[in-house]
Amino acid sequence: MPEIPLVPVHWHFPAHPASVRRARHAVAESLPHVLRPRLGDDLGLLTSELVTNAIRHGVCREDEDLIELVLWPADGHYWLAVSDPGTGKPVLAHPDADSESGRGLLLVDRLATAWTVRPRPTRGTSVIAGLSFRQGA
């Protein structure tokens, strides 16, 4: 019989800056206690960066739009998908030393074992990032 996977954890947050902290806390609390020392800080940072980007670049009106988060374990990774209703596709940039922003996806690229950007079937964009929790990875 195949192993039955865990049900993904799913949240919706308003597209408001206060949601960044709430999302980070929700993700941290959902991580199994045994994995928190190993993944907690990096997963929290990924959550902060991706939710911040979704709020800044993926919504039209913060009073109407929601940011969606999904967290699930699969194939030795914890996967985080952050989705927004925007149509733009996030792009990895290389800002110069004087730039005050534009480094969020660079951070995601350095932290995540793998990450990608996918259009949503109905409306919007999802950024999906994974962190390995296998021994030795």
TrEMBL record:
Chain ranges of the Histidine kinase/HSP90-like ATPase domain: 13-127
One Pfam family per UniProt: HATPase_c_2
Keywords for the protein's UniProt record, in alphabetical order: ATP-binding, Kinase, Nucleotide-binding, Serine/threonine-protein kinase, Transferase
One example GO MF annotation: ATP binding
Domain of life of the native organism: Bacteria
Protein name: ATP-binding protein
InterPro entries: Anti-sigma-factor_SerPK, HATPase_C_sf, HATPase_dom
